[in-house]
Amino acid sequence: MKQFKFLYFLKHNTVRYFMTALSLFFILLLLLNLADASFFEASQAFLKSAFGGRRYAYLYVTISRCALITGMAIAALIAFRAGLINIGGEGQLVIGGFAAAFVSIYSGVTGVPGIILAILSAMIGGGLWAVLAGLMKLKLGVPILVGTLLLNYPARYITSYFVSHPFRDVASGMPQTLLLDKSLWLPFIEGTRLDTGFIFILIVYGFVLIYSHRSVPGYHAKMTGLSIEFAATSGINIFNTTLKTLAFSGAIAGLVGAIAVLGIHHRFTDGMLVQPLYAWTGIVAALLINLVPWAILPAGFFFASLTSGASGMERTADVPKEIAIIIQGIIILFVASRATGIASDTKNKEEGN
Amino acid sequence: MLADLFDPAFADSVARIAVPILLASLGGAICHRAGVFNIALEGFILMGAFAAVLGTFMLGHVFWGVLSAILAGIFMGLLFAEFHLRRPGDAIVVSIALNLIGLGLTTYLLRSVLGVSGVFQNEALGKITEINLPVIESLPVFGSFLSGQSILFYVSIFLVILLHYIYSRHKLGFWMRAAGENPLALKTVGIKPTPVKLLALVLCGVCCGLAGAQLSISNVSLFVENMSAGRGWIAVVIVLVTNGRPIPILGLVLLFGFVDSLSLRLQGFGFPQQFTEMMPYIASLVALIFVSIRRMKNLVGMRGYDNG
Fold first, then answer.
1. What is the ipTM of this complex?
2. Deepest of A49, A105, B102, B155, by most Cβ within 10 A of its Cβ?
3. What's this model's pTM, rounded to 2 decimal places?
């Protein structure tokens, strides 16, 4: 149960965290040196692009990115807590995004009902995509990890085919759908350039807190994650819990796709949800905080500002923005190096102790 | 139409597609049997491919490229070992991190050191020597499959046989299998499982480094961002399906090479590109489902990696 005592851990490992931060800093200096950038200049660009800009334009970008990453992190967290290693968030996200765009363009429903319809169909699409992996596990014995992962690629290529051929906006040169009707765009918040997408994620965040700590299905899922044998012996229906949890996780990934389409891009472009690694960043964020639900929002904001800041460094200091991915990886390595585990039970068994 | 499909160039492309996946799968198999759940093959291959290009470009000969690919693979293997074996990091978490680092670092270095984004292509980049076998060369179909391939093709076939021999006959193979199947038994005979796992990770790094080299300085001579493009994941699936046995791996990899070349060919007949690109993943899924059903019937699980 140690994994839920996050603050306790922080307090008792100060030296270790300091050393981690120090080594991260040195790696950062080395990388910046390779790109011929000065640390001072780069960090200035980083801060400006993550939180500043003219009339806080960049801060708003960070917040909308934070919404997407937090959403994907929640999707990963829900499945991981139930012991289901769903690393197929990417596929569920893409299916959700495409479903939202498809329904809002071709159903003809406009205004608020159209938005609701698009979001619902995205959630159903993402949920079903995740349930497919669950069924493969339960009926055919394909491990969740591999099943969800392999379903990423069909999702990516099928939607890519759809937007390149049958549902393509022929007038634009890109493989993408038509632009959504203006009435379906998520409105900006009064006086800012911030779309309302993050409000949906805040609602989901609150809902997930209640789900994980105060609800029966959440408790069942957590119990299944901690020990599947114990849960089965206690009379929990593993079949139902697995499918429900996966559907929930996939639905949230789908919702994130819908938010990206309705709130940010207003159309579905091939690769727009895959290239920025939203799903992987979400998984990394969920792992960073060791699956503690309340910490998911700060973690999402942290990684969003990392990504935003890195693209600022690319613009002004000529540092490739992939530095954000490297830093994410290194942070996770160091965090993972304390006893964690989404599969720590298995590991102990394997080592025979 | 069939004659259009299966010509010598087809046999050649089967081999070219198969070699990187074969090498990566062998690396994954070594880890799998030693009880290390390494799903970072994607990152390993990517680092190998980049190091091969960088080494060839900087030091001027393909040999140095291959050597640096091997070193890059070993580096990744040691990194995995540091965080998974010496520190108690979870294998899946470490793998996800290493995949991200592989992707991020190669793209970053491509832009900052080589100064291009997207594709790096240079006349200084050569190709690994290709060997023409005198008699086999003139065989009707297999001629272009067995002959005229890069050295790594023959190395990988040799590795399959060597690995098969080691696992079935040699003491080292028994140790490696015991480290995965029953570490306690290994401890009982006085051998620590951890160094054996470390060795497995290093060997996996060598194999994946070679796989990367085959991708970037043999099949083509250039480096593209995210060049491995899912091959590492296909290798992971192949390892799971075959349970890490070398001979079945060879068979399955050749089947994949066949499916992949076939779908590339079909693209020429007007099939949409997305469907041909999707084929390897669908094929992996189908193979996995077949094996999983059979294993469910035999009530033999997937050796403790089953996290769901």
1. 0.86
2. B102
3. 0.88
